[in-house]
Amino acid sequence: MTPRVARVGIVVKERLPGAADVVSRLRAWLRERGVEVVDDTQCSRDEIPAAVDMVVVLGGDGTLLSMADRIGQAGRDIPILGVNFGSLGFLTEVRVNELYSSLEAVLDGSAQFDERLMLEAEAVRDGRAVDRHIVLNDVVFTKAALSRMIELSVVVNGGLVTMVKADGLIVASPTGSTAYNLAAGGPIVHPAVGALVLTPIAPHTLTNRPIVIPASSVVEVKPQVNSDADDIFVTYDGQSGYPLHAGDVIRVRRAEQALRLVKAPARSYFEVLREKLKWGER
Q1: Tens digit of pLDDT for each residue in 127-146?
Q2: HEC per residue, the chain
Q3: CATH code of the region 7-112+263-277
Q4: Catalytic residue list
């Protein structure tokens, strides 16, 4: 049973045309039903997950992704409802005209949720953990703009998988399989599948292909000693990142918690794929 929603956080994409009127009506609608509204004028976006029982995102997939990571980082198990103001999103599935029916379903306990696997990434330096991120889409290793091809060792569950010589490497969740992973030639993985995806970016060896591994796997990525580690960057969901130091190890595994997305009414994952990827069109 879904706990009662007493406080809703509203997060809006910056400079989103037409959002002001929608937010004003949404505030009034929620208050009429005894629900308190919290937005980023009252507290920072980093603080919102701890202050609410649910988050409504008005914007696109990027805005939802930034809040999903904050919810994960805060360790909260609260649903997120993504409302897309433009074309249908992979994550923001609900259209503006479906906002209130979707919210009503959450408030009366009849809503359906899509649980999405999240990733936990831990940076280890000199034998100790120095950083930790929870992300929804991916952990990406790339080279600096003018640097040479980078070399990375990839270890899964303590066993060497491969030495990647490429422009980079993507460790993606099923949700992230339709993000950078897809652009890099990686496979689409249904979000209900328990898996991680390892996809090299422009590999030097054509036989170095993407691989799908069990979600229970622990992946360790480390710059090779003959690489200039300062030329290798790690980024988390495209939201934050930093250059790696020689000897650094980034350990990626399935996070203990999942993200709960409010499902769009009568719209399947494959319908979203067909619309976004233009399947069947000439």
Answers
A1: 999 999 999 999 999 987 66
A2: CCCCCCEEEEEECCCCCCHHHHHHHHHHHHHHCCCEEEECCCCCCCCHHHHCCEEEEEECHHHHHHHHHHHHHHCCCCEEEEEECCCCCCCCCEEHHHHHHHHHHHHHCCCCEEEEEEEEEEEEECCEEEEEEEECCEEEEEECCCCCCEEEEEEECCEEEEEEEECEEEEECCHHHHCHHHHCCCCCCCCCCCEEEEEEECCCCCCCCCEEEECCCCEEEEECCCCCHHHEEEEECCCEEEECCCCCEEEEEEEEEEEEEECCCCCCHHHHHHHHHCCCCC
A3: 3.40.50.10330
A4: 61
Domain boundaries, the chain: 7-112+263-277, 118-256
CA 8 → CA 36, 52, 219, distances in Å? 6, 5, 36
What is the token pair recorded at 137? 């889409």
> Distance (Å, rounded) from C-alpha 278 to C-alpha 282?
9
Looking at the DSSP bridge assignments, the partners of residue 98 are none
Provide CATH code, domain 118-256. Answer: 2.60.200.30
Cα(16)–Cα(167) distance, integer angstroms: 34
The mean-pLDDT minimum among 43-47, 143-147, 196-200, 235-239 falls in 143-147
Cα 174 from chain centroid (whole Å):
10
What mean pLDDT value characterizes the chain?
92
Q: Which two tokens stand for residue 102?
A: 């979707």
Per-residue model confidence (pLDDT) at position 282: 66
Say whether pLDDT at 26 is over 60.
yes
Q: Is 202 left (phi over 0), alpha (psi -120 to 50) or beta?
A: left
Predicted confidence band at 225 (pLDDT cuts at 50, 70, 90)? low
Rounded to whole angstroms, the Cα distance separating 108 from 49 reads 21
